[in-house]
Specification:
2% helix, single chain, mainly beta, eleven-stranded mixed β-sheet, 1 helix
Length: 215
């Protein structure tokens, strides 16, 4: 551990973990934990390399970052949030309090995931995505039944600059287009075009995103 990193006495940092300059690991946080999997888990079973945290990143009180995950610079992992194994998180990302980013997920730079959001395994979030509180993403159309599900499990792909409103539900494998806007409480069952505003259950296109809201 570099002298420039700050680890609270109650935190646990597993051997080999790479902490960049100015990293802070706060009270009761855990970094570099190896996963313990159910016999029926669809996650890969392998020895994982140490976790890596970029300079200026903060792992807040009670948060957990698993082994095999790489987190960029100036990331905030909020209180009681969790980032599972084999994830890649870009620079300047915010992962809000109590949120869970599941295994094998990519989160692009400058993305904001707000409190209590659930990002399922095998998801892709590109740069500058906004995920509002209590969003739920899913990856398994069979909900744990049949062996066929193993080859078909896939979370959503959320393209650059897309925004997903509070409490929305994204079904497995869908794509949210670049700069699209998903309204609060929407249930998205099919792909959303770029720059479209979708609302409702099932979600439907309401209008386009105004030019003055684009990145």
């Amino acid at each position: 551990m570099p002298a420039e990193a700050e680890v609270h006495p109650t935190a646990v940092v597993y051997p080999g973990t790479v902490l960049g300059e100015g990293v802070k690991v706060l009270e009761h946080a855990v970094v570099g934990k190896q996963p313990v999997l159910s016999p029926r888990s669809t996650a890969k079973r392998e020895d994982l390399p140490p976790a890596e945290l970029g300079p200026g990143t903060v792992v807040s009180t009670g948060a957990v970052v698993f082994a095999g995950t790489t987190i960029g610079a100036r990331v905030i992992v909020g209180d009681q949030a969790c980032v599972r194994e084999r994830c890649t998180v870009g620079d300047d990302v915010v992962i809000g309090r109590g949120s869970l980013v599941e295994n094998d997920t990519t989160v692009g730079a400058l993305t904001k995931i707000q409190a209590d959001a659930y990002i399922t395994a095998y998801s892709t979030l590109e740069e500058e995505v906004f995920i509002a509180p209590c969003v739920v993403t899913t990856n398994d159309d069979f909900m744990g039944r049949t062996e066929r599900r193993h080859e078909l499990i896939k979370g959503p792909t959320i393209r650059r600059g897309a925004r997903v409103g509070g409490g929305a539900v994204l079904c497995p494998g869908i794509e949210i287009g670049e700069e699209a806007f998903v309204g609060a409480g929407a249930v998205v069952t099919k792909d959303v075009p770029a720059r479209a505003v979708v609302v409702g259950n099932p979600a439907h296109v309401l209008r386009g995103v105004p030019d003055d809201e684009l990145l």
